């Protein structure tokens, strides 16, 4: 496996375009799983606002420098409305179903603000901090189950996915009995190859489950997020049932796959870098900084911030015309050497590590405190309780998810 991209990657002066009549294809595959695609180095240096062709055949712009990405995502002239004709979704299924269901991540103010205000009190630092004992109990229980299984096991479903799904279910107050079900919903709805029918069917199953739970909460509200949404917003008429289903559905989808991928990738990285593992064992108080650095280098949600220019917008000397699609490359920004010296180096003591792995501006990840908590507890517990953990296959046999909304690992066979 390749080492993380060093900062000294040579910048090719003129990369030949495979077909000069059409902009280069996007997304661009990663070489190293713990870094941005190497091509981003060239884009930042030579084409910071570049034209690309998406898998849907549409064209869009990609922006790759740190300052430009932040400027773009904070610009009030940018729209996240998936109904706009040139919205740069990476799959047809996402585009068509997104335009029909309109998850709030793909809406603009004032609609977006209304949903965001409803959810924000549930994700404050204080509320998430109070979840730490519950998250620790979940993680310990799942680790007990993994260790009780016969090694080797696949770490992704048994630990990474089980932790992230169980935690999100705990937050929402929904039973985490069927982990496979949640995994399938996210896999199908997040794949660039899924058709609109496949996405609709997967999300339909999720909405049916949430709908049953809403009916129960109508009868008997409890002390959980779903009950608070039902009592405080559905009953009062602030929100309709389809809006509630879409909001809870996107929260599950957005929070589950991302955290699963980060837990699995961070574990793989630590198994391949005993020096980093040792550093964390010697000083566990470094864990929050380590998680922050993993988030930066991996930037797994690289092309999640999809937008359309609502007016002409000039970035680094290039005008993105009104109505064109544009993607803010988070991994491009987080490997910009102007902002992060020697960006490929993993440094738990990196000063001012203000990355954009959770996005920037009004759509910045609402679940980021929860994601950090999950990652910290999942990794700290694993390192402490399973010091003999190791890969059960050679590095080359590990499959990565190159075609999903977020980058991750398909299977990670481990033993101990
Ligand atoms: C490591 C884990 C995670 C990463 C890397 C991540 C990344 C992101 C990014 C980049 C965005 C911004 C998208 C945009 O600008 O269009 C976002 C938004 C969002 N995330 Fe996360 N996320 C993570 C975990 C979570 C968790 C655990 C939850 C919920 C429990 C969550 C819920 C959401 C929601 C609801 C939005 C939409 C916010 C809005 O549009 O206002 N995420 N996430």
TrEMBL record:
Keywords: Heme, Iron, Metal-binding, Monooxygenase, Oxidoreductase. Residues 1-29 are annotated as: Disordered. It comes from the Bacteria. Pfam families: p450 (PF00067). Residues 1-15 have a biased composition (Pro residues). Belongs to the cytochrome P450 family. This is Cytochrome P450.
